[in-house]
Design brief:
With 152 residues, this protein is mostly beta strands. 8% of the residues lie in helices and 48% in strands. The protein contains 2 helices and 11 strands; from the N terminus they run H-E-H-E-E-E-E-E-E-E-E-E-E. The longest helix has 8 residues. It starts with a helix and ends in a 5-residue tail after the last strand. The relative contact order is 0.27.
Length: 152
């Protein structure tokens, strides 16, 4: 699996969904889920890295860019198994000055429970943000089934 394969797919996707939607997978509701801390933008800036996450049933690419505490994120998630579960791309991060980690279901495979894909356009954090990581998870529509143990 080439590291840029998923990134290249974004350009060819006809349906770009609004960022930061999906069902709640976090054990508890956090401030990140209660308020809109991200907004859609047309481009990114700064230094970037690609974070790939793979578990049985879900594959995700997340491109994370930053300049100081300005952060941009764009993701791709794919349901990879005919197991009846959907895939979700989850992010976590710190808002500067807040010690609590914020969790957000950044992107979910809303197309299909077997084999769908979803891509998002760039989103930018509204507040100074740091330590953003991502992982792929599977869910049955409302309950988390499994997540990559490693945040990437």
């Amino acid at each position: 699996m080439a590291t840029r394969t998923g990134v290249a797919r974004w350009a060819g996707r006809a349906a770009t969904i609004a960022a930061l939607t999906g069902v709640s997978l976090a054990a508890t509701t956090t401030a990140a889920q209660a308020v809109d801390e991200w907004y859609e933008v047309g481009a990114k800036s700064g230094t970037c890295r690609l974070a790939q996450s793979l578990i049985y049933g879900a594959y995700g690419d997340t491109e994370i860019c930053w300049r100081g505490t300005e952060v941009w994120v764009r993701g791709f998630i794919q349901d990879t198994a005919p197991d009846g579960y959907r895939a979700v791309l989850q992010i976590r991060y710190n808002v500067d000055g807040d010690t609590e980690l914020h969790y957000r279901n950044y992107l979910s495979d809303t197309n299909s429970a077997d084999g769908g894909t979803s891509a998002a356009s760039w989103s930018k954090a509204r507040y100074p943000t740091r330590n953003l990581t991502a992982r792929a998870c599977t869910y049955d529509g409302s309950t988390k089934k499994a997540c990559d143990a490693t945040w990437r």
